Amino acid sequence: MDSVSSVAVRELPLFPLPELVLFPGRQLPLHIFEFRYRIMMNTILQADRRFGVLMIDPDSGDIAKVGCCAEVVHFQRLPDDRMKMLTVGQQRFRVLDYVREKPYRVGLVEWIEDSEAEKNLTPLASEVDQLLRDVVHLSSKLTSQEIEFPESIPELPLDLSYWIASTLHGVAKEQQLLLEMQNTAQRLEREADILTSTRNHLAARTALKDVLPEDSPS
């Protein structure tokens, strides 16, 4: 098991969300309408504007123990005290215990970080970056739609590993595992496996698409 780097322990309001995993550096827009979370947001807006996002497992209903702290960077009040918010993921945390659960959960949490890399991760990060570009190119070819590759992809291996993980869709449990990893190399290697499998699948479908029109009856 990877070692945990505990920078500090603090109380943090918690916002569990079904099948949603937030990563550091990624934006999360929210529409706050439940009464308990309106209370929570009004409280944190008077403090440091930070709260924790935790994934709710869609099958078991269990709330994850590891999540990502979010900071409110913009908000708009709507009628009935509803709010629209833009938040950004900050550092990761692990819930040690619940301080209270009503009207909303507040946890005692410790910040966690990745262990220091034992080798140069630049080559691995470059490999993962290229795999992602291959997937985007093949997806564009398969759908016959131009898919623009984002210009703001992080270059640092740690930031890239978070960015890649956040782009995976429909695999919240896999994303949760990536969030919980505390080794950048392991996270990038797992992402390389996922992207390689996706690339091979898309390549096979693209090849089939190229062949079928010629063999299909008119």
TrEMBL record:
Transmembrane segments: none annotated. Pfam families: LON_substr_bdg. Residues 171-205 form a coiled coil. Residues 12-199 form the Lon N-terminal domain. Keywords: Coiled coil. The keyword Magnesium does not apply. This is LON peptidase substrate-binding domain-containing protein. It comes from Leptothoe kymatousa TAU-MAC 1615. The lineage of its organism: Bacteria, Bacillati, Cyanobacteriota, Cyanophyceae, Nodosilineales.
